[in-house]
Amino acid sequence: MAPQLRDTSRLHWPVRKPHPIRQQRLETEVERSAVHSLLSELDPLDRAFMAQARDDHEAALLELNAGLDDSPYKPYLLFQIGQSLIKLERLQEASAVFQDALQLAPGSWELAYQLGVVSLQMERQQEAFQYFVQAVELNPHHSIAWGFLGYMTLSEGLLKQAATFFDNALGIDPDNTTFRLRLGVILGHLGYPREARKLLEEVLATPGPEALHAAARVALTELSSEM
Protein backbone atom coordinates (compact mmCIF):
# COMPACT_ATOMS: atom_id res chain seq x y z
CA MET A 1 0.00 0.00 0.00
CA ALA A 2 2.98 2.34 0.38
CA PRO A 3 3.15 3.42 -3.30
CA GLN A 4 -0.59 4.08 -3.35
CA LEU A 5 -0.36 6.14 -0.18
CA ARG A 6 2.58 8.08 -1.62
CA ASP A 7 0.73 8.85 -4.84
CA THR A 8 -2.43 9.82 -2.97
CA SER A 9 -0.49 12.30 -0.84
CA ARG A 10 0.98 13.87 -3.99
CA LEU A 11 -2.42 14.07 -5.62
CA HIS A 12 -4.02 15.84 -2.68
CA TRP A 13 -0.98 17.95 -1.76
CA PRO A 14 -2.55 21.25 -2.97
CA VAL A 15 -5.44 20.93 -0.52
CA ARG A 16 -3.41 19.95 2.53
CA LYS A 17 -4.95 21.19 5.74
CA PRO A 18 -3.32 24.43 6.96
CA HIS A 19 -0.95 23.84 9.86
CA PRO A 20 1.51 25.97 11.84
CA ILE A 21 4.64 26.92 9.91
CA ARG A 22 7.51 27.96 12.13
CA GLN A 23 11.18 28.65 11.64
CA GLN A 24 13.03 25.35 11.32
CA ARG A 25 15.41 24.42 14.07
CA LEU A 26 18.24 21.94 13.87
CA GLU A 27 16.91 19.81 16.71
CA THR A 28 13.57 19.30 14.95
CA GLU A 29 14.84 18.67 11.44
CA VAL A 30 14.71 15.12 10.15
CA GLU A 31 18.09 13.69 9.25
CA ARG A 32 18.57 13.47 5.48
CA SER A 33 19.62 9.86 5.71
CA ALA A 34 16.31 8.97 7.33
CA VAL A 35 14.40 10.68 4.54
CA HIS A 36 16.50 9.08 1.80
CA SER A 37 15.85 5.61 3.20
CA LEU A 38 12.19 6.05 2.20
CA LEU A 39 12.95 6.97 -1.42
CA SER A 40 12.99 4.54 -4.33
CA GLU A 41 15.14 4.65 -7.45
CA LEU A 42 12.16 3.15 -9.28
CA ASP A 43 10.03 6.27 -8.83
CA PRO A 44 10.92 9.27 -11.06
CA LEU A 45 9.85 11.81 -8.47
CA ASP A 46 11.88 10.08 -5.78
CA ARG A 47 14.86 10.20 -8.13
CA ALA A 48 14.24 13.93 -8.51
CA PHE A 49 14.24 14.33 -4.72
CA MET A 50 17.56 12.49 -4.53
CA ALA A 51 19.01 14.77 -7.19
CA GLN A 52 17.75 17.84 -5.31
CA ALA A 53 19.34 16.55 -2.10
CA ARG A 54 22.75 16.34 -3.78
CA ASP A 55 22.21 19.79 -5.36
CA ASP A 56 22.00 18.38 -8.88
CA HIS A 57 19.01 20.46 -9.86
CA GLU A 58 19.51 20.05 -13.59
CA ALA A 59 19.06 16.31 -13.15
CA ALA A 60 16.06 16.93 -10.91
CA LEU A 61 14.44 19.09 -13.58
CA LEU A 62 14.91 16.35 -16.17
CA GLU A 63 13.14 13.83 -13.95
CA LEU A 64 10.36 16.23 -13.00
CA ASN A 65 9.65 17.49 -16.50
CA ALA A 66 9.73 14.03 -18.07
CA GLY A 67 6.35 13.01 -16.69
CA LEU A 68 4.79 16.42 -16.19
CA ASP A 69 2.24 16.46 -19.03
CA ASP A 70 0.63 13.15 -18.08
CA SER A 71 0.93 13.51 -14.33
CA PRO A 72 -2.25 13.36 -12.21
CA TYR A 73 -0.52 15.50 -9.57
CA LYS A 74 0.79 18.28 -11.77
CA PRO A 75 0.65 21.10 -9.15
CA TYR A 76 2.98 19.11 -6.89
CA LEU A 77 5.45 18.50 -9.70
CA LEU A 78 5.35 22.17 -10.70
CA PHE A 79 6.06 23.11 -7.09
CA GLN A 80 9.13 20.88 -7.07
CA ILE A 81 10.25 22.23 -10.47
CA GLY A 82 9.99 25.74 -9.07
CA GLN A 83 12.14 24.76 -6.09
CA SER A 84 14.94 23.54 -8.34
CA LEU A 85 14.67 26.61 -10.56
CA ILE A 86 15.13 28.81 -7.49
CA LYS A 87 18.28 26.90 -6.57
CA LEU A 88 19.54 27.48 -10.12
CA GLU A 89 18.73 31.21 -9.73
CA ARG A 90 16.27 31.06 -12.62
CA LEU A 91 13.76 33.19 -10.77
CA GLN A 92 11.70 34.36 -13.74
CA GLU A 93 11.08 30.77 -14.76
CA ALA A 94 10.34 29.74 -11.19
CA SER A 95 7.76 32.52 -10.88
CA ALA A 96 6.03 31.43 -14.09
CA VAL A 97 5.97 27.80 -12.96
CA PHE A 98 4.51 28.68 -9.55
CA GLN A 99 1.87 30.87 -11.20
CA ASP A 100 0.86 27.99 -13.49
CA ALA A 101 0.61 25.72 -10.47
CA LEU A 102 -1.44 28.24 -8.50
CA GLN A 103 -3.91 28.51 -11.37
CA LEU A 104 -4.38 24.74 -11.17
CA ALA A 105 -4.53 24.76 -7.37
CA PRO A 106 -5.76 28.20 -6.20
CA GLY A 107 -6.23 26.96 -2.65
CA SER A 108 -2.57 26.06 -2.12
CA TRP A 109 -1.05 28.25 0.58
CA GLU A 110 2.37 26.75 -0.15
CA LEU A 111 2.30 27.96 -3.73
CA ALA A 112 1.13 31.42 -2.68
CA TYR A 113 3.97 31.63 -0.15
CA GLN A 114 6.59 30.51 -2.67
CA LEU A 115 5.36 33.12 -5.14
CA GLY A 116 5.76 35.71 -2.40
CA VAL A 117 9.34 34.63 -1.78
CA VAL A 118 10.27 34.60 -5.47
CA SER A 119 8.57 37.95 -6.10
CA LEU A 120 10.51 39.46 -3.21
CA GLN A 121 13.78 38.07 -4.58
CA MET A 122 12.91 39.68 -7.91
CA GLU A 123 12.22 42.99 -6.10
CA ARG A 124 8.55 42.95 -7.04
CA GLN A 125 7.46 44.28 -3.69
CA GLN A 126 3.78 44.81 -4.40
CA GLU A 127 3.35 41.33 -5.91
CA ALA A 128 5.23 39.77 -3.01
CA PHE A 129 3.03 41.51 -0.46
CA GLN A 130 -0.14 40.33 -2.21
CA TYR A 131 1.09 36.73 -2.34
CA PHE A 132 2.06 36.74 1.35
CA VAL A 133 -1.39 38.09 2.19
CA GLN A 134 -2.89 35.29 0.11
CA ALA A 135 -0.71 32.77 1.93
CA VAL A 136 -1.90 33.84 5.40
CA GLU A 137 -5.50 33.97 4.22
CA LEU A 138 -5.17 30.34 3.12
CA ASN A 139 -3.08 29.35 6.13
CA PRO A 140 -3.40 31.79 9.07
CA HIS A 141 -0.80 29.73 10.96
CA HIS A 142 2.09 30.58 8.60
CA SER A 143 4.41 32.51 10.93
CA ILE A 144 7.07 33.13 8.29
CA ALA A 145 4.57 34.68 5.86
CA TRP A 146 3.35 36.93 8.68
CA GLY A 147 6.99 37.79 9.38
CA PHE A 148 7.59 38.79 5.78
CA LEU A 149 4.53 41.05 5.93
CA GLY A 150 6.00 42.58 9.08
CA TYR A 151 9.37 43.27 7.49
CA MET A 152 7.79 44.74 4.36
CA THR A 153 5.48 47.13 6.23
CA LEU A 154 8.31 48.04 8.62
CA SER A 155 10.49 49.01 5.66
CA GLU A 156 7.69 51.32 4.54
CA GLY A 157 7.52 52.95 7.97
CA LEU A 158 4.08 51.49 8.73
CA LEU A 159 4.83 50.69 12.36
CA LYS A 160 1.34 49.83 13.57
CA GLN A 161 0.75 47.40 10.73
CA ALA A 162 4.20 45.90 11.20
CA ALA A 163 3.51 45.44 14.93
CA THR A 164 0.31 43.55 14.14
CA PHE A 165 2.05 41.29 11.64
CA PHE A 166 4.98 40.51 13.96
CA ASP A 167 2.57 39.92 16.86
CA ASN A 168 0.72 37.37 14.72
CA ALA A 169 4.00 35.73 13.74
CA LEU A 170 5.20 35.57 17.35
CA GLY A 171 1.89 34.11 18.49
CA ILE A 172 2.45 31.18 16.13
CA ASP A 173 6.19 30.85 16.76
CA PRO A 174 6.75 32.11 20.33
CA ASP A 175 10.35 30.87 20.41
CA ASN A 176 11.38 33.05 17.47
CA THR A 177 13.74 35.63 18.98
CA THR A 178 13.94 37.61 15.73
CA PHE A 179 10.20 38.24 15.73
CA ARG A 180 10.39 39.12 19.43
CA LEU A 181 13.21 41.60 18.81
CA ARG A 182 11.44 43.30 15.91
CA LEU A 183 8.19 43.61 17.83
CA GLY A 184 10.01 44.99 20.87
CA VAL A 185 11.81 47.65 18.82
CA ILE A 186 8.59 48.65 17.07
CA LEU A 187 6.64 48.93 20.32
CA GLY A 188 9.37 51.16 21.69
CA HIS A 189 8.98 53.51 18.75
CA LEU A 190 5.19 53.44 19.11
CA GLY A 191 5.39 54.61 22.73
CA TYR A 192 4.90 51.37 24.66
CA PRO A 193 8.17 51.21 26.67
CA ARG A 194 7.01 48.70 29.27
CA GLU A 195 5.87 46.15 26.67
CA ALA A 196 8.95 46.82 24.57
CA ARG A 197 11.33 46.33 27.49
CA LYS A 198 9.72 43.02 28.42
CA LEU A 199 10.17 41.65 24.90
CA LEU A 200 13.74 42.89 24.57
CA GLU A 201 14.75 41.46 27.94
CA GLU A 202 13.26 38.13 26.87
CA VAL A 203 15.47 38.25 23.77
CA LEU A 204 18.54 38.69 25.98
CA ALA A 205 17.43 35.85 28.25
CA THR A 206 17.18 33.45 25.33
CA PRO A 207 20.24 31.77 23.79
CA GLY A 208 20.79 33.08 20.29
CA PRO A 209 23.12 34.83 17.87
CA GLU A 210 25.17 37.65 19.34
CA ALA A 211 23.87 40.01 16.64
CA LEU A 212 20.33 39.65 18.02
CA HIS A 213 21.51 40.22 21.59
CA ALA A 214 23.51 43.26 20.53
CA ALA A 215 20.48 44.74 18.76
CA ALA A 216 18.35 44.11 21.85
CA ARG A 217 20.91 45.87 24.09
CA VAL A 218 20.98 48.88 21.75
CA ALA A 219 17.18 49.06 21.77
CA LEU A 220 17.06 48.84 25.57
CA THR A 221 19.63 51.64 25.83
CA GLU A 222 17.49 53.81 23.56
CA LEU A 223 14.44 53.07 25.69
CA SER A 224 16.28 54.09 28.85
CA SER A 225 17.45 57.35 27.29
CA GLU A 226 13.92 58.26 26.28
CA MET A 227 12.47 57.73 29.75
What is the beta-strand fraction?
under 5%
CATH class annotation of the largest domain = Mainly Alpha
- Biggest sheet overview: none
Write down how many β-strands occur, each being a DSSP E stretch of 2 or more residues: 0
Structural class: mainly alpha
Residue-averaged pLDDT, rounded?
92
Query: Can you tell me the CATH topology of the largest domain?
Result: Serine Threonine Protein Phosphatase 5, Tetratricopeptide repeat
- Helix proportion range: over 70%
Give the CA-based shape.
elongated
User: Radius of gyration over alpha carbons?
Assistant: 20 Å
Quote the distance from N terminus to C terminus: 66 Å
Our count of domains comes out at 2
Low-confidence stretches: 26-35
Count every helix, treating DSSP H or I runs of 4 or more residues as helices.
Answer: 13
Helix and strand element order? HHHHHHHHHHHHH
Report the CATH architecture of the largest domain.
Alpha Horseshoe
Question: How would you sum up this structure, described in words?
Answer:
With 227 residues, the protein is an all-alpha fold. The protein folds into 2 domains: 40-139, Tetratricopeptide repeat domain (Serine Threonine Protein Phosphatase 5, Tetratricopeptide repeat), CATH 1.25.40; 162-227, Serine Threonine Protein Phosphatase 5, Tetratricopeptide repeat. 71% of the residues lie in helices and 0% in strands. The protein has 13 helices and no strands. The chain has helices at 2-11, 32-36, 44-53, 57-66, 74-87, 91-104, 109-121, 125-138, 143-155, 159-172, 177-190, 193-205, 210-226. The relative contact order is 0.08. The model is unreliable at 26-35 (pLDDT under 50).
